[in-house]
Each structure stands twice: as structure tokens, then as C-alpha cells.
């Protein structure tokens, strides 16, 4: 049965509301993300899964609102965004209950619909036309969500069927048991993995923003890092469409400069979180937990080093466990220096390097590739904005500057 053609005046109004919503897309997606994380807190602890979920939410809203904005009176075919299929496959690979997909979509739908109604009341005054607009829009939105839910759950079920069979299933199950701290024999687990668990382990998490299908490039980068570390082959496990977990089994701690040099030969958008090198099956788990803490810290911020070591970021990761508390700490410690503006960023970076170089102006200037006088002027201005010499609260200021440097907008105040 063919869907009826919509009245032209309603089509025009739907287009106007859709354009208004697309202009506020960031705020809407943030609300949808928060609702999904509240539903399943374990999702919020995994930066890779959060990134894919957020990309899916954004893609779905953009897809539907773009259809509305075209102002086509004829019904359009419903296309499922690839980002929605990506996160469905990741949920299946992780062994998460597929009902999470259904519940997340319904929560996201409710939030999107509330936003749509709010935007509609700004475009159309109360009356019969607004009622008609909301009736038709809700029908189209529910049809879209129902269709997408069916497609993504089917994709997740197919992925789960593939994962449950063969070597990948055995590897996934064994790694999961180790990471969950289950009582498992080290020798037998090593045989199932084809990986020697008695050695020292350096866990890696490789990812590439924005989310996308680049597993081949991530696998290649893991191989380069393994060779640089003197490891035979990395043990790898896909953790999403743009995230890879890996472990390097070695007799000693890999040389950081060798790893950094290997990463320079990999695809340029690939970043790596590196856990500490620890022996045995417990070390396998603890190194991964540390690498994941670094990944969670950096995944939402595109700046910073491509190779990030837990030993360098352990304190920062601990301080950033509560984003709200971290933002409050940065604001109260840095004052006006905590603004998310280019001028404040220059002052923060200069002061951060200056303190790191034991307040040595020439060394700071060399690191920043600028003149010594410029460094001293910026430090003076930063001190003025702080309201006291940095040495009075050196530890707190250094930590606040490091948080701002590593995770940027998540702890900074809007300029």
C-alpha cells in the first residue's frame, strides 16, 4: 500500500522544523548520548563504544531531519546509516544484551521527539495546524525508528552468530574471561589464544577518530608496533569499527622511541594508548585496564600525542575520572585561564611547559619554538590572570594545566 502524499503546507513546516533542529544538533546528540549511558552505565565506561553510539545517534537524526528538510511530499525510502550498523555489530562482538539496542533507540526517540515538539512550537503557533504537523511528523519519525531498529538488531544477530562460531569466538571468550578475572588456567588459556601468557605483556588500544571502518589499518599498525617491541605477533581483538585491543608479549619493556617510530609509519590518524609492561595473566589484565583508562581519557579530544603512555598520564587519568569534578577543579584553580579560547590556550600551554622546564625561559622557548621574551610575557600575563605566583599552588596548577592540555573542552569553560 502506497503512503499518502503529504499536504504541501505541512511539508513546508516539517522542513522548517527540521532545519531548526539540525542547527542545534550537538545539544540534541549530547542529550541522547547521556540517556543511553544512563540506561547502561557499562557503556559509558568504554570510550570506543560511546564514540560509536554517539556517531549512530548523530547519523540517525541527521538522516531523518535531512529527509524532512528536502520538503518532498512523497514518502522517501528509509536508509539505515552505516554508523547505526557499526555500533550494532560492536554490541554483538562485546557480548552485550541486544535489548540494550532496543531500549537505547526508544530513549533516543523520546528525546528527539521532545526536541522536535519544542522546535515545532517556535515555528507554528498553537492551533489545528500545529496538531496536524505533530501528528504527521510523529508518524514519520516512528516509522523511521521502527525500521532502523529492525535492521540494526538483525545485523547484530548476524554478527553474534558469526562471533559465536570458530576461532574468533574462542579468542573473544578467553580474553573476556581473563579481563573479568575469572579463575582460568594460564597455560590452557594461552593455548586457546595462541599467545604465551607467562611473558610480560604491554597492552595497547589503537583507535582512529572519527569512527569508521579501518580495522585493516589498525591491525597493520599493531603489527608494526609488535615488531618494534621485539614481539613475535600481537594478540588482537576488535573492539569496534574503529578500535582495536592488542597485547605485545615480550621479555622486557618495549622501548618507547621504537614504538613511536613505528607509529609514524602507520596511517596518520591512528592513535595508541599504551599500558604498563607487567608479567603473567594478571599483568595481561592490569595492563589492559590501564590502557583503557588512557583511551577513555583521550578518545574525545583530537589533540595530544599519537602515542600515549599510562605511566605519563596515570595521575591525569585518576583526576579525570569524574568529568564534572575535574572541570570544577580546573575552573577554580586556573580562573580566567580555564576559558576555551585561543588566547587562554596559548597562555596555558606556555605556563605548562615553563613549569615543566623548572621555570627556565630559554628551554621553554626552545620547546615552543618561540622567543624567550614572548615566553616571559605570556608567563607574566598568565600569573596576572591566576592572581598569584604559580609556585604558591604549583602541584594543583600543574595538574589543572595537564587536564586542560590532555582533554581540552571537556574541562574548559566556554569562552
Automatic annotation (TrEMBL):
GO molecular-function terms, A-Z: DNA binding
Sequence ranges assigned to domain RsbT co-antagonist protein RsbRD N-terminal in this UniProt record: 26-171
UniProt domain CdaR GGDEF-like: residue ranges: 185-295
Domain PucR C-terminal helix-turn-helix: 347-402
Keywords, alphabetical: DNA-binding
InterPro entries associated with the record: CdaR-like_regulators (IPR051448), CdaR_GGDEF (IPR041522), PucR_C-HTH_dom (IPR025736), PucR_C-HTH_sf (IPR042070), RsbRD_N_dom (IPR025751)
Protein family (similarity comment): Belongs to the CdaR family.
Name recorded for this polypeptide: DNA-binding transcriptional regulator, PucR family
Protein's organism: Nocardia amikacinitolerans
